[in-house]
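Lab notebook: predicted structure, single chain.

Context: the supervisor wants predicted structures on file for every construct in the current expression panel, including those that have not yet been purified. This is the next one on the list. No modifications to the sequence; it matches the entry in the shared construct table.
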Amino acid sequence: MRSGGTKNVVVMTVAAGLVGTFAIPAYAFAPGTDGLQFGATAQTQLTKAQPQAVDVADDVIAAPLSEDGYDAVTGEEIRAAEEARAAEEARQAAAAAMTSYAAEASQYSAPTQVSGAASPSAVFSVAQQYLGVPYVYGGATPAGFDCSGLVKYVYAQFGIDLPHSSNAQGAAGTQIPLSEAVPGDLVVMSGHIGFYAGNGQILHAPYEGTVVRIQPIWTSDYWIVRI
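Prediction complete. Output recorded below exactly as produced.
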C-alpha cells in the first residue's frame, strides 16, 4: 500500500509539472532569449529598426532602371528633350505649311499693279486687303505671308521691288520721328517688320499659327521708316 501510494504521488507530481509547462504562454519564449532558436532574425531586426531617410537631389525627377543599375535623369535633361521635341514638331508643321503654300501660291501670278504713287495712305489701303491671310514662313503671296513677304508683296503692286528681308526693307527707306508716323509707314524692329496702323498699332504677319492682323505694338524698341 505504501509503495503504491508513493508511486501515485510521483506520477501526480510529474503530471502537474507537464501541465504547467504546457500552460506557459508563447510570449515567455519571445525572441531575445539566450536560446539560439529564439534569437531575433534579420527580418525582425529590420522591422524594429527606426525609419530611415534618403536624401535625393531636387533635380532628379526620374530614375529608370537600366541593365547595370539606376540612371538618374535630371529635370534639365527632361526639359531639353521636351524642347527638342517641340522644335521638331514646329519644324514639321512649318514644312507642311510650306508644302501647302507652294501648291496654292502657284495660282498667283505677279501682283497686279495699282495706279498712283506709293504714298503711306495708298500702301496701307492695299495692305488691309490681306487681313486674315495665314502666316507662312517664307510666304510672299496671298496664299500665305511672313512679315517681310507681306511688305514685299504690297510694295510690288506699286512697282517697288523690295528684298524679302525685314532688315533690308528697313534699310531701304528713310527713318522718320515717331511723331511723324502715319498709317502705311513701316514699323521696323530687330528681325520683324510691318505697317504702322496708327494709334500705336501695327498691321503685320506675326508668327506661325496666326494670320495677318492689327494689334498694339508690344515693345518700345522699334523705329519708323518711310519708303
